[in-house]
Amino acid sequence: MSGQKFQYDESGGTFFYFLLSFLALLLVPGTYYLWPRCPKQDPDQLAKECQCDGCKKKKVILHANKPWKETKAFFTKFLIIVGWIILLLLAYKVSQFDYEMANFDPYEILSIPPGSSQSEIKKAYRKLSLILHPDKETGNEKAFMKLTKAYQALTDDEARKNWEKYGNPDGPGAMSFGIALPSWIVEKENSVWVLGLYALVFMVALPTVVGMWWYKSIRYTGDQVLLTTTEMYYFFFVKTPSMSLKRVIMILAASFEFFKKRNAEIVERHSDGEEVPSLIKQLPNLGEKNKEVPLCHLYSIKARALLHAHLSRIPLNPETLDKDRQYIVKKCPYLIQEMVACVHQVILLAYARRVPRVPTITTIENCMKLCPMVVQGFWEFKNPLLQLPHITEDNLKYFHAKKRQIKSLQQFAQLKGEERRLILRNLSDSQYEDVIKVLGNMPYIDFKVRSEVIDDENPTVYTAGAIVTVTVSLTRKDMKHLFGDDSVNEQTMIEDNKAGGEAVEEASEEQNQSTKATKPAWLKQKKGQKKSHKKGTNKKIAPAKNTQAQSQTVANNTQHSNTPNARKKDDKTEKESSKEKLSDVSDSEAESDRSDDEDSHDKKDASLDDDDTEWEKFQQRISKRERVLEGRSNLSHEVHCPLFPDVKQEYWWVYICDRKSQTLLTTPIHVTSLAQFEEIQLRFTAPRWPGLYTFTVCLRSDSYLGFDQAQDIKLDVKEAPEIPTEHPQWDISDEETAEDVDAADEHSEFTTDEDISDNE
């Protein structure tokens, strides 16, 4: 290693390589991910949007919430473009370095053709040296040194050999490693500044940034909810297992996201001392005199009053309280989702006997019910038709005429166009068009439920303690499918077949495969039995023919037995009949062998069919797992919610509960990607005791009121097969089984239909 040299870059050439590579690593992915992209706008988007006053006001609010959006996009584009310009300049400079170092041609430097004589070389050198000599006015020291080196390469024999062999007249140079930093960094004059910069970056700035990030991250859950808020939810759900809707609103308003000391985004104004008390006087049943902490704190009472005003649609001061209302309402869907998760966790803790009482299904359903109330901005007891634009309390009287009683959006959609226009005759044509747009884009969910026991011989037989899998299929369509106009229905069907037909076909194929897979095994055995039965009858028919031939031969023998010639003939016929018998027996044996072979072949086909169905099931499970690993998007369909100050997507909750015992059986799954079709699997353990049980599969919307659905599933639970006692590792002592039975009797999770009838 004696020929190696380590030195700093005096000329700065190596430093340009470092800058070029570093800048390229930043610009290439940064341009792809950070370049502002304009979303693809539908030319007919304006015609599809609702033009009611609420939607227009919401557009202004959304634009005001992002005042620096255009400026930020322009600044980002400017930085990226400047970065690429610098990158191109660095690449050009580096290419010039490479050209100078790699392309040393003495003939080109002397401006003479290859193969010139020594006199021509000397003549060209003298001519150029008079121009490039440093003592001359037009002199250039660097160019003159290069000219001298080229002259030596062509005139000196040793230099010429080095140039021809190594490309350099000086011969093979020593290997040098240049550090890609300029030399001024290690100079004594700059050492204090360099060390100060290192200390500022690595000892002050970096630890400060990491500490701030860590302090913020440990305060929040995975859904960006304060941990103190989650702890408060747990406390109140344990304290009040059966919670009314009014108390759920109180707990939601007490979230620490609305507390100034826990959230710096909260604005406290001097005018709150006058406006909040005057607002409280307009709100009955607010519960402002509650003494529980933190329900009695001022921030909690203010947030509660703003939520009640939002649900009652009370107008507020747009400069003060209305801005606070927008901030609180925007946070509510995330907080309600956290409340639902907390209630489920408390239920699990109650089953594990860590919590004294189990929260009822009413508590978690009241939490879910609050979300669409906040999104649409009215109470649950109000008419769901108020979710349509331009519909007020005064318009509701037209929906309750003598001939018709329209109470839901689905009933209103099923009317013919003339009847709908007659009901809304007090609206203008543009207002009626807005109503039809919003109504037609609302969700119409095809809700299908299928239950089975996977990995079992009889998937439709439910035994005690078995894992029951309930597959919920959700097919989302627009409400315009229910319109009473035939022309509208045909048009919408054509559009949906073009847009979403592939997804529905895939869904139907999956359902067909699942139904084929769940076909019981005894059906295939019956098919095999039919085939074997036909072949068995063929076996019996052949011996019957042989017996008839034998009886005829016996009759002929008795007739001709009196004559001697007849005796000879009898001997011959006996020999022939014996041969025929042997041939008949051999034929029957061959037929039986063939039938046995065919039966075994049928059994092999049946086993192959079973293997195919099992393989299809396995492939379906793998595909579902891959979908889960890929992740779900949070885009489905935009919700019409003029009073909600942000863009809202349609989300749904799916869960299974027992209405009779008021218990929750499965984790509520939040479906966030129901664009056209979605399939969800819910699993729970079947009851321990045999009997007939009825459970309810529920579908709840977090965006609209009046769109919830429920289906009952009945499970006829049979006794579980006895555990074989041959294996010693499976033996269970009598004391343990007695304790388990007593514990199961004390804490029964489910209630049978027979128990309910007996109690009644």
UniProtKB/TrEMBL annotation:
Recorded topology in the membrane: Multi-pass membrane protein
Region annotation Disordered: where it falls in the sequence: 497-617, 720-760
Key words of the record: Chaperone, Endoplasmic reticulum, Membrane, Protein transport, Transmembrane, Transmembrane helix, Transport
PANTHER family per the UniProt record, alphabetical: SEC63 DOMAIN-CONTAINING, TRANSLOCATION PROTEIN SEC63 HOMOLOG
Transmembrane segments: 15-35, 74-92, 192-215
Residue span, J domain: 105-167
Record-level GO cellular component terms: Sec62/Sec63 complex
Bias type Basic residues, positions: 524-538
Listed PROSITE patterns: DNAJ_2 (PS50076)
Bias (Polar residues): 545-565
Domain of life, per lineage: Eukaryota
Subcellular localization, as worded in the UniProt entry: Endoplasmic reticulum membrane
Composition-biased stretches (Basic and acidic residues): 567-584, 720-729
GO biological process, one term: SRP-dependent cotranslational protein targeting to membrane
Protein's UniProt keywords contain Metal-binding: no
GO molecular function, one term: RNA binding
Entry-linked InterPro entries: C2_domain_sf, DnaJ_domain, Ig_E-set, J_dom_sf, Sec63-dom
Biased composition (Acidic residues): 586-599, 732-743, 751-760
Lineage, highest ranks first: Eukaryota, Metazoa, Ecdysozoa, Arthropoda, Hexapoda
Short name of any one Pfam family annotated for the protein: DnaJ
Protein name from the UniProt record: J domain-containing protein
